């Protein structure tokens, strides 16, 4: 019998099913591994399951779900030597596209078993959480694999209906984006990048090239690099947002005069704007961002 593999499975991910996870389990068992499937029950549960799972020192943890599930698992496994692989069942599967992981179960399992683990740098966000009931505040921080979106991006994610997301997938983001655009009236945010102060209305702080699927907002970003690429959008009008979206789709946004593209290792954002990390809502600014080198072992 080979070493053990633990699968952290999110059953409500867009493309998840009991049939698929059973197939993954059978494939791994057929290759001689001891396999345990741990199923999440609610938001945040994947991280807790991962923290418990690493106590048994498995040879591999496979996160089965979408980018939000991968974020939770990476927050549980970061700082350990236990490698993490992914089984993409999500809506956009940005991490899978970035790594080249197939969405087919058999191919994804073969990918996880045949590739080696590599040290990956993570983004880390630090902020202050204020309890609206008690008005007590406390520091909060999280790792992210992909990107943080602040401003229009963050507000769009904050408005997403989870039921609609389960049914329509990417359609939920499109609907929420349209609703956000119709009422968008942003406040200016102040960004400190490498000690230089910039002003704008939306910003993407990224560790990867891809965004929302195969679109590339920060084309030079790499998971293994110990720095971010930051894309700052300085326009606030609705027509500006539409222009940015079109520019991203056709790959010309970095040539716009009101878009800054900067390499950075630390970023501070002040103001009053919504934040998303790895496609899930985080909270509001102010927040600080840093890169943590070699924080997790990722299979790809």
Brief sketch in words of this structure:
By secondary structure, the chain is an alpha+beta fold. It folds into 2 domains: 112 residues, Rossmann fold; 173 residues, Tumour Suppressor Smad4, CATH 2.60.200.
Verbal overview:
By secondary structure, the protein is α+β, with helices and mostly antiparallel strands. It folds into two domains: 112 residues, Rossmann fold (3-Layer(aba) Sandwich), CATH 3.40.50.10330; 173 residues, Tumour Suppressor Smad4 (Sandwich), CATH 2.60.200. Helix content is 30%, strand content 36%. It contains nine helices and 18 strands. The strands form four sheets. Strands 6-5-18-15-8-9 form a six-stranded antiparallel sheet. It is globular, with a radius of gyration of 19 Å.
List the domain count as a whole number.
2
**How many extended strands?**
18
Helix share, percent? 25-40%
Instruction: Provide the β-strand percentage band.
Output: 35-45%
List low-confidence stretches.
none
Provide the fold topology.
Elements: E1 4-9, H1 18-30, E2 34-39, H2 45-53, E3 60-65, H3 67-77, E4 84-88, H4 94-99, H5 105-114, E5 117-130, E6 137-144, E7 147-150, H6 152-158, H7 162-168, H8 170-183, E8 189-193, E9 196-200, E10 202-206, E11 210-211, E12 215-216, E13 228-233, H9 238-250, E14 259-264, E15 266-270, E16 274-277, E17 280-284, E18 287-299
Helix pairs in contact: 2-3, 6-8, 7-8
